[in-house]
Amino acid sequence: MNSETVAVNPTAPVAEDDALLLTRVHSGEESAMTSLYDRYSRLVYSVALRVLRDAAAAEDVMQEVLMQVWRSPSTFASTRGSLGGWLAVVARNRAIDLLRRRRPTDSVDDIALASNFNLADEAERSSLMEHARTAIQQLPRAQRKTLEMAFFDGLTHSEIAEMTGDPLGTVKTRIRGALTSLRKALQP
Amino acid sequence: MMPSDQNTVMFPATGAGHLDPADLSVYAMQLVSGDQAAAIAGHLSHCPDCRAELARIHGDLALVAMTVDLDTPSPASRQRLLSQLAREKRIAVPAQSASAQLVQPQVQTAEPQQAKPIAAFGRSGSVLSMEERKPKRRAGLIILTGLGWAAAAGLCLVAGSLLRDRQNLRRDLASQSGQIDRLTADAAQAHQLMDALTNPGAMRVSMRMPATEKPPQTPSGGVTYNPDKGSLVFLASNMAPLEQYKAYELWIIPADNAAAIPAGTFHPDRQGNAAVVMPDLPKGIPAKAFGVTVEPDGGSQSPTMPLVMFGN
User: What is the pLDDT of residues B30-79, one digit of tens each?
Assistant: First the structure.
């Protein structure tokens, strides 16, 4: 087990901004949802679009994920980490569910996310995305392709192993290695 | 998950009694089968260390998600969300009270029905008469108690059935509301599009590449722009593919020589076709010309020369 400690930064002003936004969502302010839409719709939509390659279906996923916040704002607690990151991961999972024509495989409650990035801030979000793209491009090609096949195409490690001819253990190790490298490359 | 995987991958705990982080990674991506997922979930339920590692992996996955090229959803999606919010606001409040009405009575009615017969027997009759009627009373007690429980069970079944029906109806309603919202938004967008294309006040500008060297296929595009309504439709063809992390950006050059206004980024498809349809623009800005530049993905606040397309 990796003993590295990654904590949510509770004092960051922009994180509070997300927390305040959620408080307003909780109290039923529709304007808070439009702010949430303006802040994260492109990210959520783009993740779903990358998985589904279908604009209408991606918009459906985005609508579902954002409405999930409206229906159960307490589903995401500030202790769960970055709201933007959480939305992106939930959007990816819902898109994969749709891609594989299966029922949602887990409750969104199951996703706790340790992150100290404040994606509420547009500048920091853009900077992080730029750095993340650079970092993923710098991964060894086989590692990057394996990660993308798993994350964006929703292929299981068995399916990836069949397609690439690599042993199952190698596939899992590549995925793990890619995630660890990304984490290290983007450590603030 | 493939059957071979189930035979070969057992997700054992490591020597320290924790799950292998590589297994947790595929679990976090929801790529393991139901049985294996259940086994991992079982371990996670009593292992805070593994839960913390899973949270870190979810954080890593968020970083992977951040590597996507940003696209913009259609303007109609915002309206669709607002419509859905308005609908669910109206539905959500009565739905909760309805839920309370359905669930609470089964608790409230069940208790009196099972308690009443027993309490009534305790309060009535002398000791002697109670002795004399003991077998009969005991039988009556059993029957009435049974009836009470049966009534409570019946109410539970009815309440459960009503609750299920309500949930089904609510799901159907939400689904149909979503479809209606989407159709309404699509219709509104189509109406806006038609208006933008056919409005007599709209200006139409053809755009060409100003380069001196002519490529085999010259990029070309056309803008239909209505300044009063801030509506714009841009269609282009033969656009060259872009480097990674780059996007084309359309600019409105105002008639009063003010700073160029960004009118949306776009990427051409494999055939070189591209479109910018009804971007969010301020109203009442007459245009002198239009231009297209290559910008970092996500767009810029001011155009980066040179222009790859220009028209006035």
Answer: 888 778 888 888 898 889 999 889 988 998 999 999 999 999 999 899 99
Mutate to test the interface with B, among A1, A6, A44 (most CBs of B within 10 A): A1
User: Domains in chain A, ordered, with CATH?
Assistant: 1-119 (1.10.1740.10), 121-188 (1.10.10.10)
Q: Of chain B residues 8-47, which have a CB less than 8 A from chain A? A: 8-9, 14, 16, 18, 21-23, 25-26, 29-32, 37
Minimal Cα distance from B91: which residue of A? Answer: A71
Find how far residue B36's CA is from the centre of its chain: 28
Cβ contact B66–A63 (<8 Å): no
Could B64 and A58 be called an inter-chain contact, meaning their C-beta atoms sit closer than 8 Å?
Answer: no
Interval B264-285: pLDDT, tens: 888 888 888 888 888 888 888 8
CB pairs under 8 A between A and B: 196
Cα separation of B32 and B162, whole Å?
36
Query: Which residues have CB under 8 Å from B42's CB, separation 6+?
Result: none
- Tell me, which fold does domain B203-311 have in CATH? Immunoglobulin-like (2.60.40)
The answer, yes or no, to whether residue B182 has pLDDT greater than 50, is yes
Report if pTM > 0.80.
no
The domain segmentation of chain B, as residue ranges, is 3-65, 75-196, 203-311
The C-alpha atoms of residue A90 and residue A88 are separated, in whole angstroms, by 6
B87 touches chain A (CB under 8 A): no
Amino acid at A66: L
pLDDT score at B138: 65
Residue B304: CB atoms within 10 Å: 11
